[in-house]
Specification:
This protein has about 180 residues and is an alpha+beta fold. The protein is about 20% helix and about 30% strand. The chain is built from three helices and eight strands. Strands 1, 2, 3, 4, 5, 6, 7 and 8 form an eight-stranded mixed beta sheet that branches. Strand 4 (about 65-70) and strand 5 (about 75-80) form a beta hairpin. The longest helix is centred in the last third of the chain and has 16 residues, at about 115-130.
Length: about 180
Amino acid sequence: MADSFDRGDRARKFTEELQFIDAPDHPSVRELAAYFERKRGNRDLLDRADIDPVEIARFMPNMIIAESIDEGRDFRTRLFGTALVELLGEERTGKLFSDFAEEGAAFSSRNPGSVQQRWTYITRRAFLSRKPVFVNVPFVASERLYLIGHCISVPMTAGGTEPVQMIGALFVAKADQPAR
C-alpha cells in the first residue's frame, strides 16, 4: 500500500475551506467508519475499550486520538500517527489543539491560527453532535490544489455515556485522482 500522502508530498499551505460530507468518499475512511460503527453496536457512542489497535493497525499511522478538555472547548492529542507527523512536519502528541496555532505559519501564510481553528472546529463538531464527522480538506501550494485530505472524527466514551475522547484519521490523495 502506498503512503497516504504519496511518498513525500508535503503540505506547504492549506486553504481555509472545509467540505463537510455526509458519507466518506475515501476507501480507508469508509473502512474505518464501518469498523467504528460495528464496534459501537446498538449504543449511542463508541467506547474506547471497543477499539482493538491490532484490528486497525494498518490505519494507525494516519490516526489521531484526542481527549476532551473543559467539555470540548479544547482537546489534548494523545496519539498523532507517524504519517501525520511526516505529512505535517511536526509531532503533536501531548499538545493541546489550542497550541497548534504556534506552528500554523508553516501551513497558512494568511492566517497562522487557521490550523488550530480547523482541527478544533472539526473535532468539536463531532464531539458536540455526538456523531461521526466526515470532511474533505484541500491542500494548496503556489495557489494550486494538489492534495485532498479525507478526514473522519468520531466521539468516544471511556466506560461512561458521555464523550470524553475523539478518534479520527486523515488520509491524503492527489487532487487529480478520484477517491474511489
